[in-house]
Write a structure and sequence with these properties.
The complex is a heterodimer of chains A (about 280) and B (about 120).
Chain A: E1 2-6, H1 14-25, E2 29-33, E3 51-62, H2 72-76, E4 82-85, E5 88-91, H3 101-105, E6 111-126, E7 129-136, H4 144-151, E8 159-163, H5 170-176, E9 181-186, H6 190-205, E10 210-217, H7 222-231, E11 235-240, H8 243-250, H9 255-258, H10 263-280
Helix pairs in contact in A: 1-10, 4-5
Chain B: E1 2-7, E2 25-30, E3 36-40, H1 42-45, H2 51-61, E4 66-69, H3 74-82, E5 86-89, H4 95-104
Parallel strand pairs in B: 1-4, 4-5
Antiparallel strand pairs in B: 1-2, 2-3
Helix pairs in contact in B: 2-3
Classes of the chains: A alpha/beta (about 280), B alpha/beta (about 120).
Chain lengths: ~280, ~120
Amino acid sequence: MKIAVASGKGGTGKTTVALALAETLGERGLLLDCDVEEPNCHLFLDSAPARSEQVEIPVPEFDPERCLGCGTCARSCNFHAIAALGKKMLFFPELCHSCGGCTLICKTGAIAETMHGIGNLEFRATAGIELISGVMNVGYPMAVPVIRKLKEQALPDRVNVLDCPPGTACPMVSAVRDADFVLLVTEPTVFGLHDLELACDTLEELHLKCGVIVNRADDNCGELEAFCRKRGIPILMKIPFSRKIAEGYSSGRRLTECAPELKEEFEALLASVCESRQVRQ
Amino acid sequence: MKIAFTSRGRNLDVLLDSRFGRAPFFVIHDTVSGDTTAVENIQNLNAAQGAGIQSATTVANAGIEAVVTGHCGPKAFRVLQAAGIKVYQTSALTGAEALRQFEAGVLTPLESADVEGHWA
């Protein structure tokens, strides 16, 4: 099972919630930090990775002996990753989407595929949480291939908790895409509600089931509640706006450490999410 | 010698476009014949990515030896350099003004890209 924790707006508490879920699940869970541009789950685990694995994508490699300089590969590349200057081929791996088109179209077989590193997967297990973080290389512009590789690590016999990137663009979509349930973490602010609406629209397009968690909940949740009612999206939990939690967070402590009374609520939340999945099937 | 100027229009009297990859036109001036022609670059104006690379390939295929523009990013510069094309930087407002600067020898070729990609 996969539970995606997404938000629309950044900084609403996705990581906070994802960690709390993973901690509640213990050995039944696996936490995947899909926010590969800025993974930060590990900051709350205080341990170095036990091991690391390179994420690679196939990119073309040109054989000057066989190349006729026809330029067909460069013209066929939708991503403009190849420049052909006669027989001089220039390749820009950061633009390549690994579609393999150039390799297929080359008549003389001058293009072979070679592997190009774009990031890493980091494996950690500490405080009863097993975490795999996707880390994109600095300077590489595409998060999606790293997220895809990371998601291949999901285990079928566990509850996989996916800490997703903010926003509603490709990285977010690729992270939530095959989730059984999406938890949308929001906050009772104009910005939180605005971006929650965008996230809800995106999930509707993707036909994904979702529920809302309100973080920093105070007395101003009326508009947010009205929106959720109108859209038929359940509010599954409210995390109170409290000084205790804020102070704990700012000193690197997980939510369940600074507010242990919330553990039961997370248990109940997980039970209802797992149940909703069974009903759906 | 053929020189390409990044331009907003089809001749040297209009505004010079300070961008290389996403300039709407390359106005090509032949210093020997004195002829001026224009190559459209509109297709790259809206390219999602790789505009600089494509523009540099266009310029290279047109037999250009020098480019006069406002700025040049790293990918375009790599292609132009590989094609043996020199890139001259100017802050001139029009192509005609830039041509006068070029002929007066006040422009010096860039040794590397002067801006990051997607700077504009």
